[in-house]
Write a structure and sequence with these properties.
The chain is of the alpha/beta class. It is built from four helices and twelve strands. The two termini are 18 Å apart.
Length: 178
């Protein structure tokens, strides 16, 4: 794990699909009340899920992008890098960039910078949840330093069987040792 990116967690919060939908509703209502985006960009992997939901709720076009410090679900870079660039459709548009979590804020800030480079008129950000020490996106539904377990990656397929995501297992084991 990259030093400084890993977090110490004292609690566990397992989100259900209903929780995610409620958070997306809350975010969509706040966004619509304060901002009128032309399109939504979702940060792959996890951010595309709330981004698609919010884009659908707001009846907006959705575009994926990938800015990550991960490869094959493992943290391998100190800083996030552009892996799949933003669409050129952001030019002269009001853009909402969505991610599932803002752990440090570096990915969202990179996406904002890239959107501005491509000529976006205005860029705002949203995340389902943030950590207390993170850079704060424009909107977020939850602030928690708990180990937040997302419903879309709780289980992974390993040797023909669905098992809990190894990253969650490692975090839970670390919590038990503390």
């Amino acid at each position: 794990m990259i030093r400084g990116y890993d977090r110490e967690h004292r609690d566990v919060l397992q989100l259900s699909w209903d929780d995610v939908m409620d958070m997306c509703r809350e975010l969509a209502a706040s966004i619509k009340a304060e901002f009128d985006p032309d399109l939504v960009v979702g940060i792959a992997k996890g951010g595309v899920i709330p981004a698609v939901i919010i884009a659908s709720m707001l009846r907006l076009d959705f575009f994926p992008a990938r800015f990550s410090r991960r490869r094959r679900d493992m943290v391998v870079r100190e800083k996030p890098e552009v892996l799949v660039p933003l669409t050129d459709d952001v030019r002269n548009k009001r853009v909402l960039v969505v991610d599932s979590v803002s752990a440090t804020g570096e990915t969202l800030r990179l996406a904002v910078g890239e959107a501005k480079k491509k000529g976006a008129r205005k860029v705002k950000t949203a995340a389902l949840y943030i950590h207390a020490t993170s850079w704060r996106p424009t909107w977020y539904a939850l602030e928690s330093d708990a180990l937040v377990m997302n419903p879309w990656d709780l289980e992974v397929l390993s040797q023909g069987k669905f098992v809990m995501h190894p990253e969650y297992i490692a975090a839970l084991e670390l919590m038990e040792r503390q």
